[in-house]
Every structure is written in C-alpha cells, then in structure tokens.
Write a structure and sequence with these properties.
By secondary structure, the chain is of the alpha/beta class. The chain has one domain: Arginase, Chain A (3-Layer(aba) Sandwich). Helix content is 37%, strand content 14%. The strands form 2 sheets. It has an 8-stranded parallel sheet, with helices on both faces. Strands 2-3 form a two-stranded antiparallel ribbon. Helix 3 runs antiparallel to helix 4, helix 8 packs parallel to helix 9 and helix 9 runs parallel beside helix 10. The chain is globular and about 55 Å long.
Length: 345
C-alpha cells in the first residue's frame, strides 16, 4: 500500500491548547505523523510518495468560499495586528446574534472556530493544504489499479465543517477525498469514521446528500467532544435522509462492544451500494490514549482493518486522531496491514 506524506505538516506545531480549564502542551503534535511514518518504513508497508498540488477547487467543493478565504488570509491580518503569536478567538457570536463580517481578526476567528484547540499560525495554511493534497493524491491512487492508499494527513480534518474549524481540524481531508471520488464518477461513496470522536464536520458537509453515506462510530456525545452532534437520531435531512449513521458508544467500550458497532456500520455501507470508501482513520480508540476513554488493544486494530477490507471496494485511508504517541504507529499500521492481509489473500 502506498502512503502519501508531506513534511510540510510540521508547519502546524501548536505548543499549547486549552482543555478542562487549563493550558497544556498540545496533544496534536508533528511527532504523531512522524511516528506513523517511522512504523510504515519499519514494516515495509509500501512506497512513501509526496502529494501533488491540486489548488483550491477541491476545497471549495466541500467548504464555503468565505471560509476558505478566511483560512488562507487570517494569519496575515492577525499577525499585522497582534504580532507573531498564535491566533485564537477572543469572542464567539452568541445565539441569535448576527454572524456578520467584522474588521477585527480575533472576532473573525470566533465566527469560524468552534473551540480553543486549534490555533492559527504562520504555517497553518501550508500545512492544511498539503494535507488536503495528500488526501487527493491518495484518492487518485486508490481510484486506479492499486485500489487502496493511505493519506498520512496532518493536521487531521473530520471536525472541520462547511464553514467552521476546530478539534485540531481546518480542512476536512476525508470530505475532500470523498467528493473527489464522486467527481471521478463514483455514484455512491461512503465515509467510515472510526475515530473516537464524532466526525461532526464530515456529517455537516454531507448531511443533505444521498450520494455520500457517512457512518461514524464514536464516543457518546452526551459525555464526549464534540457534544453537539453525533447522536443516533441524526440520520440526514432532505435528500440525505437515511444516509447518515451514528453509532455512539459508552465510555469504557472495548472491542467486544466496538466490533458489533463496526459490523453495523459496514453492513449499512454495503447496503448503500458503495463503490468507493474513505476511512477517517483515528486510532484514539486505543486504551492508552490520553484524551479518550475506549479500551481497544493493539491487536484489535488488525481486526478492524480486516473487517473493513471485507467490503471489497477501492479504499482511501485518511489519518485523523490518535494521541498515545508511543503506540500510534503500531495501531495505525495494524489497521493498514490487517486490510492488506485480506485484500492480498
């Protein structure tokens, strides 16, 4: 399996984040991607290739133009006013307020940002566009004879919606990949999100569409980020009714609880008539993850990869979360090698 990777991811290097009332070292760090890459090379998973350059059009296919313009320009306006310090919102629009453009970058950040985990810095735009390019390059590979590829994206993307960012995510790489598969002629595409946290951004982008099914297995949002979406009764709207599946699980869930949820999601994806699959591959379901509360073990990720392979469709894996850095490489590559075990047999 080919891996698509760009060292430009390291330009997004937040030193701190705010969590549970404290300023702490950021859990989303460049080391995450570097350790996955190290493991890929150690097991000789396959060639590692640089992404191509695809421009803005694929981003605009899933994100609002004003939002893309904001992401591409906010560092310039923020740094002109505040200097070379990380950009965080200083206000959020309350309910029933006017979400109109202002002249202050801190307020503009509040119009588009959903939390305090995702600072904008000088290299953010370069890092996030290289991640999207990695997803698009992997899609090109998987749409061809090889039928599978891994986009080692960083920053991750599944919390980025049509017109908002947060949860370490700026551009929704999985959504960009799924839309690209549609643009290439796939009539029915599915996104399977196995990250511990609900892919609220991916749901937002495709919620009113019947051509892209979104299936997510995640911690119950009553008790876990992103809190305001990911409930089982969210099934799509308008033409998208019935094309969104959420399977929330309780804190402490191990693979014994996770596997039936995965089987449910895979059965729904198969029933969709899926012609191509995008997997939002978060491995923060691991027992040792510092910000998550599931109990999956290293070997469970092999089983997950084998189960996903049973669909037998072209598959793009897109890296999302996973913050137990000592095990992130093993767990990520276990999914990929488990998938290859079935595809190659």
């Amino acid at each position: 399996m080919k891996t698509v990777y760009s060292p430009r991811h390291a330009l997004q290097d937040a030193q701190i984040e705010f969590i549970r009332g404290k300023s702490v070292p950021s859990f989303e760090m460049p080391q995450r991607a570097e350790l996955v890459l190290e493991r890929i090379k150690a097991v000789a998973l396959g060639p590692v290739v640089e992404p191509g350059s695809f421009g803005l059009e694929p981003l605009l296919a899933v994100h609002d133009p004003d939002f893309v313009e904001f992401l591409s320009t906010i560092w310039e306006t923020w740094s002109a006013e505040s200097g070379q310090i990380d950009a965080f919102p200083n206000a959020w629009p309350p309910p029933r307020s006017r979400r109109i453009r202002t002249k202050r970058p801190g307020a503009e950040l509040g119009r588009y940002c959903i939390d305090m985990s995702s600072p904008i810095m000088a290299g953010t735009w370069t890092a996030v566009t290289s991640a999207a390019d990695a997803a698009l390059t992997a899609t090109e590979i998987a749409a061809g004879p090889e039928r599978m590829a891994f986009a080692l994206c960083r920053p991750p993307g599944h919390h980025a919606g049509r017109d908002y960012f947060g949860g370490y995510c700026f551009i929704n790489n999985a959504a960009v990949a799924a839309q690209n598969l549609v643009d290439r002629g796939a009539r029915r595409v599915a996104v399977l999100d196995v990250d511990y946290h609900h892919g609220n951004g991916t749901q937002d982008i495709f919620y009113e569409r019947a051509d892209v099914l979104v299936a997510s297995i995640h911690a119950d949002p009553e008790t876990e980020y992103p809190y305001y979406s990911g409930y089982a009764d969210e099934t799509g709207d308008g033409p998208g009714e019935g094309f969104n599946l959420n399977v929330p699980l309780a804190w402490g869930s191990a693979y014994g609880e996770y596997k039936p949820a995965l089987d449910t999601a895979l059965a729904r994806i198969a029933a969709h008539g899926t012609e191509a699959l995008v997997v939002s591959l978060g491995v923060d379901t691991f027992d040792g993850d510092p910000i998550s509360r599931f109990k999956l073990q290293n070997a469970d990720f092999l089983s997950m990869g084998r189960a996903i392979a049973s669909l037998g469709v072209p598959t793009v894996f897109v890296m999302e979360g996973g913050y137990a850095v000592a095990d992130i490489g093993v767990n990520t590559v276990n999914v990929l090698t488990g998938f290859e075990d079935v595809i190659g047999s």
